[in-house]
Design brief:
176 residues; alpha+beta; 5-stranded antiparallel β-sheet
Amino acid sequence: MWFGLILTTKTHTQMKRILLAVIFGVASLSSLNSKAQVSLSINIGSQPNWGPSGYDHVENYYLPDINAYYNVPSKQYTYQNNGSWITRNQLPDRYRDYNLYNGYKVVMNQSKPYLSNNSNVKNYSKYKNYNGKQTNLRDYRSRTTSVKSNKKTKNNNSKIARNDNRRGSSGRSGRN
């Protein structure tokens, strides 16, 4: 009888060791797997409606018409004031008539692009007075929504109405 109890205790201890080894092995494999994961940052929803379409991630826009920058994550503008770069939530009054929807935007995925301003002015001044020749997110979204609704209407053999959201929209500085 004592012999059976000793045998059972040895078997029980060995089973515990095997179980612990399996748990340890699975834990080590899962930690290796987690190191192989990739982080992907997409900020489509946080881009302003006046931003250009076609980009899934944007850090900054350069606005060549007014030589200013807009940081998408912080939603702030950086522009020169008395020779110094300042960052604010809105553009200054001198740009109150600037229409963000019509001006050209250069996507710049770098930190503090205004530090390369001389180069940016040289490379992108050709886009000054571009006046609405770049599709912005608002117009792109309304066009794709319009196309989808027109297809549904066409399938129902109804009249197709053109939806033009451009009239009456305000794309003034500091508003997104």
